[in-house]
Design a protein that fits this description.
456 residues; alpha+beta; Beta-Lactamase; Helix Hairpins; Heat Shock Protein 90; 5-stranded antiparallel β-sheet; 9 helices; rod-shaped; transferase; transmembrane; phosphorelay sensor kinase activity
């Protein structure tokens, strides 16, 4: 993933840009205030005028020019005027030049502040030769401070403020990052210790960045793991309970075989033991298939399947068992309906539904199958005319190893419908059982239709 698409990256970038902007603004403001109000050395304009006059009288315009250069280095542009003319060149803005003659004509001392942070001073000074001269000075501060000093103060304040703001924003960012990370870490440790109900919760999902998404993914993963482990534990408990009876019967049969008085009796017991072993093998295989289906179907095992054609094949395989009990299997369908999935898994689901219907149907009764399209899904219906199930048991029919009150009418382990449900959900579909009109049970398995193939 590109960092430019990361919301966490932009969050950090905006934070530190804001830090630098705040440091620049506050640094400039505080530096200017410090220069204006924090410096104790204020400019003495009268003393400055007297100094300029003494330099001029002792060294002339050359000495005055040197003096002006020295003042400029300290942040003051100054020179002497005599009879309205500058004795040495001086840099003055246009708006100062426009008013300067009026200020000189007033022949009085004045300190003006025409603009914020701009000071203009006009000072009268009497020379030893009896002539009156006037100091004109321009400064951006009311204090005597070298430009280098002001730059140093500005850079120092910028550095201090930058460190302060970076520290504050860095603490806030680190805190906002550390909280979901710590929440995920604590949830991970709790899960590792066996607490499968551990979740990150709101603490890790308050933000809207990759960490919040990671917290949501962790919770989804934890929920899935808890469901799978809970399911496996439940199935294992049910299976251990179900295995006790055939194992006990097998132990009794083998004990009777050992105590048999004749080879014929022993052979009969051994045949019964073989049947019990077959039942155990069938039950174990069904449980393994149920466990594998919890992981879904890998994408590479999917193919386009005609549900109608697949049901025809399933009916052909079930006809032998159905004819033995004089049960007629019929299929009502429209045009072919294509779904995407695994042929082997769907065959197993339909085989289980048909076998279950045959098992609980009275001899000579029909089992009716139908396939129709409902919106964008294929609906496969298997209906029998058996005793059905009580209302209270309908919601439990698809629970592994559940055998209802009518289970005594037929052999089974209570796994066929559970496997059919897992197959349906692994294909993005669902399954539902309801009472059929006129008696019996109707099971509906729905699957999403496969996208239409575009002609190339």
């Amino acid at each position: 993933m590109s960092p430019f698409k990361s919301s966490l990256y932009w969050r950090l970038l905006v934070s530190f840009c804001a830090v630098n902007l705040l440091a620049l603004l506050f640094g400039g403001f505080l530096t200017q205030r410090f220069i204006e109000y924090g410096t104790a050395v204020e400019i003495n304009w009268a003393s400055l005028a007297q100094s300029a006059n003494e330099v001029y009288e002792n060294g002339g315009t050359g000495a005055l020019a040197v003096w002006s250069q020295q003042q400029r280095r300290e942040g003051i542009d100054a020179t002497l005027y005599e009879n309205g003319e500058a004795l040495t060149p001086m840099r003055t803005p246009a708006w100062v030049r426009g008013s300067l003659q009026n200020w000189l004509d007033e022949k009085r001392d004045m300190v003006l502040q025409p603009w914020p942070n701009i000071y203009v001073a006009v000072q009268q000074v009497n020379g030893s030769d009896g002539r009156v001269r006037q100091l004109v000075a321009l400064s951006r501060t009311h204090s005597r401070m070298r430009p280098q000093t002001r730059t140093t103060i500005f850079l120092a304040s910028q550095a201090v403020l930058s460190l302060l703001f970076i520290g504050l924003v860095g603490w806030w960012v680190a805190r906002s990052v550390a909280r979901p990370v710590e929440a995920i870490r604590q949830a991970t440790r709790r899960m590792a210790s066996g607490e499968l109900s551990a979740r990150v919760g709101r603490e890790g999902q308050r933000a809207h960045d990759e960490l919040a998404q990671l917290a949501r993914d962790f919770d989804a993963m934890a929920e899935r793991i808890e469901a799978l482990v809970t399911h496996d534990r439940s199935v294992l408990q049910d299976l251990s309970h179900e295995l006790r009876s055939p194992l006990a019967r097998l132990h009794l049969i083998l004990d009777l075989a050992q105590r048999s008085d004749s080879a014929e009796d022993a052979a009969r017991y051994f045949r019964q033991a073989e049947q019990e072993i077959g039942r155990l093998d069938h039950m174990t295989g069904e449980m393994l298939a149920l466990s594998r289906l919890e992981g879904g179907i890998p994408g590479e095992n999917r193919e386009r399947i005609d549900v109608v054609s697949l049901l025809h094949d399933c009916i052909q395989r079930a006809n032998v068992e159905a004819q033995a009990r004089r049960i007629a299997l019929s299929l009502v369908s429209s045009a072919p309906l294509m779904v995407s999935g695994s042929v082997l898994l769907l065959e197993r689901a339909f085989d289980n539904l048909i076998a279950n219907a045959i098992k609980f149907s009275p001899e000579g009764s029909p089992v009716e199958l139908a396939v129709r399209q409902v919106d964008d899904r294929a609906c496969c219906i298997v209906r029998d005319h058996g005793p059905g199930v009580p209302d209270a048991e309908l919601s439990s029919l698809f629970r592994p190893l559940f055998r209802g009150s009518n289970a005594s009418r037929a052999e089974g382990h209570g796994l066929g419908l559970a496997i059919a449900q897992r197959v349906a959900r692994a294909h993005g579909g669902d399954i539902e059982a309801r009472h059929a009109e006129g008696g019996g049970l109707q099971v509906e398995l729905t699957l999403p239709l496969a996208p239409a193939v575009m002609a190339g």
